[in-house]
Specification:
Blueprint lengths: L1 H20 L4 H7 L5 E11 L2 E9 L9 H4 L13 E4 L10 H5 L6 E9 L2 E12 L7 E2 L5 H11 L7 E4 L2 E4 L8 E4 L4 H45 L1
Antiparallel strand pairs: 1-2, 1-4, 2-3, 4-5, 5-6, 7-8, 8-9
């Protein structure tokens, strides 16, 4: 009897803890692609009421169809979206990180990081929409930089979605580089030299990503050529 009571208590504790163990804050959910159909950089091309036509500048690998697409093609093979596509976003009043007035300022000509979900023929906000400047993920800069979260978001953007391990101690933010290096304080920035080190680390991260894609493409093309050659020889014989 006592053993049964013990197991019931254990089960209760597991059920109580499990939901929070897998929960994530909006930033963490965005970085992990949780309940998110698309994460893009996009430019507002036109607007009509609550509708915004958005041209896709960059598609982050945190999209659901990310598996192997980074390693197969620079054209985002297998993704639901690709650079140059135009989508329609609606429901901006539901953006979690903006007030209604701020959402109304999402206008033609401006560029944004957008976390979105697909709904029928439209996309609607998911975890947040953040205004940026720049033309690529590498030179994009957040317009707003008030909080420690924005420092993490900036590194995430400039790494093309590779760097997403961050932790916070009060108002201080730290980044754990994906290469296994020591954690770096990213907010508040200690000095200009540390800021330069962070930029260099992000650049190295992006270069590693490009090298992996390039080598993967070379391997795939080589295997394809070998396969075709073997098939042609067998058919000839």
């Amino acid at each position: 009897m006592n053993r049964n009571i013990f197991f019931l208590i254990v089960i209760f504790c597991v059920l109580l803890v499990a939901p929070t163990a897998y929960a994530c804050d909006p930033l963490g959910c965005m970085f992990g692609g949780s309940k998110q159909d698309a994460l893009i950089l996009g430019e507002i091309m036109s607007e009509s009421g609550d509708l915004r036509t958005v041209k896709v500048i960059f598609v982050f690998p945190e999209n659901p169809a990310k598996a192997l697409s980074e390693f197969v093609s620079l054209k985002n093979l297998g993704r639901t979206l690709k650079e140059g596509d135009q989508i329609v976003v609606t429901g901006l009043q539901r953006v979690v990180n903006l007030t209604d007035e701020e959402a109304k300022l999402i206008t033609t000509g401006k560029k944004y990081l957008m976390s979105l979900n697909k709904k029928d023929d439209f996309y609607v906000p998911s975890w947040g929409i953040y205004e940026i400047t720049g033309t690529t993920y590498e030179n994009a800069r957040l317009v707003e930089t008030r909080f420690s979260d924005y420092s993490a978001l900036q590194i995430f953007i400039n790494s093309g979605g590779i760097e997403r391990e961050f932790y916070f101690d009060g108002d201080t933010a730290f980044w754990r580089p994906s290469d296994g290096g020591e954690a770096v304080q990213i907010y508040p920035i200690i000095n200009q030299a540390e800021s330069k080190k962070i930029e260099d680390k992000i650049f190295q991260s992006v270069q590693r990503k490009k090298n992996i894609i390039l080598y993967s493409q070379i391997i795939i093309v080589t295997l394809a050529i070998v396969g075709v050659s073997v098939f042609a020889l067998r058919k000839k014989n």
